[in-house]
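quick one, 472 residues, struct below
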Amino acid sequence: MTARVETMKRMRVKEALLNESIGQKVKLTGWVRTRRDSKGGFSFIELNDGSSMKSVQVLAESALPNYESEILNANIGSSIEVIGEVVASPGKGQTTEVKAESVKVVGFADPATYPLQKKGTSFEFLRSIAHLRPRTNTFGAIARVRNEICRSIHNFFQSRGFIYVHTPIITASDCEGAGQMFRVTSFDLLNVPRKEGSAEIDVEQDFFGRATHLTVSGQLEGEAYATALMNIYTFGPTFRAENSNTSRHLAEFWMVEPEMAFCDLEGNMECAEEFLKTIFTDVLSNCSDDMSFFNERIDKTVIETLKHIVESDFVRLPYTEAVEILEKSGQNFEFPVQWGIDLQSEHERYLTEQKFKKPVIVFDYPKDIKAFYMRLNDDGRTVRAMDVLVPKVGEIIGGSQREERLDILTERMKGCGLDPEEYWWYLDLRRFGTVPHAGFGLGLERTVQFVTGMGNIRDVIPFPRTPKSADF
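---
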């Protein structure tokens, strides 16, 4: 038996579900979802290994030597190894099943203490057992969709000649200028060194010899590589110490940020539109079972919404025109509209869901509500910023053409209360061979949340980090 097993085809559950597998001898491994015992002297085991939304039904007959001792004790959550033949299934809703020649229980799960039983469980409770929730249908599907989105992101840029750059997680620069950053230090917090005769912390004694933080963005460092390698993208974890407990905020999240040299705002918008359409097309094509699950159980409009975006031409709308449309809309917005404000979700959703009924890219925002690095327009009031808005959520991508002119960038920094000397290396990119360049950022978790229809962003990242919560 051992020699035959070594040469036997090792299958994932997803493969074993295919009609082409009938007649093959296979070895399957995974976890028990359910077990039904028949008075006729056999058991049906629903086996899942995470490769598919669907499970394989295993027929285990009482003639198996460990039927009484092990198989009848393989409860929900137990891990098993099955050797058998894929056969046509007479049962409804499935085309194949595996007739077991042997079933080995690798690890038992005590039904009295195993927290995942075949019954409805709230997402809030599942957050408290985030180490086990991937075993549920919902979170298995989220993991597969998240994986497909990541694969699509890399494929999109790699197929277009972009170079993947790993930017630092520890940084001395505040990219957004908002100050909501986690401090990184090696100090003993019970004995922090102070400057002589002062209560001021002596940061020169810290590990890096200066104040450092967890990054909120890899953009600034990404620009250094774009101005040498043309087109690059970063994709990694970012952090924000924002004390917010909403369903759309995390303290740790993943961002993808492409940066393109010799590119203006128009090219940036074209890339962002194509990027979103590619991601959504790939998810619809490669995660059809998972998306059908979300469409049925979570949000009955997710598939329709994604298809509509893929098939739409995104509207290009200057900020000033957007404000005029909103002011004339007759809508009773919670946040009043006037030129100079940052558009709120309710404004963005009106534009995408009622006015244009398709995605909208709003551009040329007032400079006072945007970051220092965005290119100043000739009017002196607006910058070459853009936000890509989609139905149901509003902004999903934010980006800009970067300010490539040294003198203007320096003045913008000063106007934002930043010391240009702290960004000497960033200014060097303008001193030596400066070029027009542009880029944008897409939050992975908000994208997964949008694609799946999940109501809380804490449910689309494996182990969420939020205020007062850093379990697991």
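The domain at 2-107 is CATH 2.40.50.140 (OB fold (Dihydrolipoamide Acetyltransferase, E2P)).
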